[in-house]
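Check out a protein:
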Amino acid sequence: MEAKYNFKEIEPKWQRRWEALDLYRGVDGDDKRPKYYCLEMFPYPSGNLHMGHVRNYSIGDVVARFKRMRGFNVLHPMGWDAFGLPAENAAIKHGVHPAEWTWRNIANMRRQLHELGISYDWDREVATCHPNYYKWTQWLFLQMYKHGLAYRKKAAVNWCPSCATVLANEQVVAGACERCGTPVTRKDLEQWFFRITAYADWLLEDLKNLPGWPEKVKIMQENWIGRSYGAEVIFKVAGSGEEIPVFTTRQDTLYGVTYLVLAPEHPLVNKLVEGTPYAETVRDFVEAARNLSELDRTSTEKEKEGVFTGAYAINPVNGEKVPIWVANYVLMEYGTGAVMGVPAHDQRDLEFARKYGLPVRVVIQPPDKLLEPDTLTEAYVDNGIMVNSGPFDGLPSAEGKKKVIEYLEKNGWGRRKVNYRLRDWLISRQRYWGAPIPIVYCDHCGIVPVPEEDLPVVLPENVEFRPTGESPLKYCPDFVNTECPRCGRPARRETDTMDTFVCSSWYFLRFTSPKEADAPFKRARLDYWMNVDQYIGGVEHAILHLMYARFFTKALHDFGLVGVEEPFQNLLTQGMVIKDGSKMSKSKGNIVSPEEIIDRYGADTARLFILFAAPPERDLEWSDQGVEGCYRFLNRVWRLVYNYCHKVRTFGTGNAQATPLSAADKELKRVIHATIKKVTEDIEERFNFNTAISAIMEMVNAFYRYQDEVPPEEQNLGLVKEGLSTLIILLAPFAPHIAEELWQGIGREGSVHLESWPVYDPEALVQEEVTVVVQINGKVRDRIQVAAGLSEAELKKEALSRDKIAALLAGQQVVKVIVVPDKLINVVARRAG
């Protein structure tokens, strides 16, 4: 063993050995050990790892290595979420084909992960852009189609008139195309959807079966699904047979409706204004509103605007005519695309009514004051007593909600209804670099799915990328032109590709049998490994990715393809890595490159810092001094082991029990076993890696005290060897390379990562002597060494008999003595007389 810690030699050496030994392969169907599936969210291959990646993968690696040492058969795979828009942008900007750009980035990031020493089973590596993977993404689309969960309909998209192309939301900057600056409009296109709404209730109900998920993530999903109970009320258009259904959760305020609002996209708008003086104004407003983003239209900060259509609707409960408006804050995708305006009891409605001079009518009075409609500045939204509400006057509003629904149903004016905020999943992307949708359009047969035996529908590589960003697929006749699988006539392929979230909604299933050629996964292996025991990733994926993965799993369960109903048993959402108070980004100039840190300090230092600096679920503030501190600690561990390595290598196999233990030996043994207990519990129960590492640091301090205070000839080498072995094993999940080298350095054989995790001895934790703090009136005045377990009376006698304490209490009267056994004595005293 060298005297100096040389990570530049140690780390590549052990990475090569691990790879040669295939040390981290998960064994399929090994029923002798319990299985454990540990998975970090796979990355988009952007080209380089960033510190957020390092944190995510280091957390997962600690869990995977710990579980292996605890006797589990661990599956810890890695792959690449490889389709996506950046690859197309690179093709346009640099003239590099998306496939070449992607595979080059994958190779670089794979190298970086190797350098970090992450214990992946690389034999299971997948990339979603490989035909062997997206063949099965297409196959799963066909299963969705077969079961009525995939369908096609018109939907609005962002459209750049200058580039003549569809834009993703992130390509729209301040309402304009990011490439050419032209104002973006909205355009209706036929697109493909997955019917996720059919699973809304199941997705919602099963959140309670996920105790291992953070509460905040479950609340976010619950809010995204947005189940609400209320009534659908039918308002009839005055002078016509048209009906406007409106969903409301506040049917108790129906008598307070003073206007109705339609979404600009509502199909009735054109009918209402056709041939009227209001037509031009309304159509101009509709066009302007449609070009606003959904975010702008629903923002609480954006001013609400609207126009009167000239038409009126009849409120069914009181027969009143109320004006029908069109407003930018109502969306066709939510509810029925129509809302009832109740200004006295909805703040948005009140602001709109005040702006346009619409009436305000109070129909719920609070119990403690009287609301006046003319002076109302804040809508009253709480429960109260119904007033101005016909037969319901005097009812508590909570009771009124039930009564009003009964009244509506009895008279045929409405019905009770459950509504959801969740919309169906639009999966069409007018892009090249994605999984082609396996559909053919035939003038004779209509929409025809590609036969399963003809999959995959392969992305053509010989395509031309246009500066406008248009998908080149539609200009590739060899791809577009095909034969109808049913009738053999000429047909056209679908040129849209799938949302990349489709690819990432099932990758965890593919990892169970990634080389399976005849199915997306082998059922026996899937049944063995699923579900994922620990999933780790950023909270930014709390809604879309996690919701879609849950939907896919439930749908495949319904199809009889998988046995589990939830994909991820436990979820850890790690915080961001920030520097100078903000998220690392190129624009802020605060990026720290993992490669620079690894080159300067080594991968083990990078891992140790990222795990030690903060609990995993919290944001981590980068600190150069913190990195230096972790590097110094590893050097300190190295020197400690080096100082003993020759002695313990030749000591033999005896253990600490071979000779009687001195007081110093007992204290060192106590620290060793207390550290085993602390580190085990912190990793297994709490994922408190920072406090686990802190405990290891304290153990190293205890070793140095022992080394300094006990003469060499009196040191118990059996205990030292046991303690150093334990130290190296405890450090191994956090700093795997140095642990391997130190393990070899003390003469142990095999890989430390194949060792069993140590178990603490409860008897070793018992202290014969303890240090008790002595306070007078809350101020520390002394510390005394006493036998552990002394009674309160004995501790009190011991403290008060100390010369130092007696001198400090001279001239004072002891009022009382507070004793915390084995820890503290506080003497409460005051001046005598």
Summary: The chain has a mean pLDDT of 93. The two ends are 71 Å apart (CA to CA). The first helix runs from residue 7 to 21.
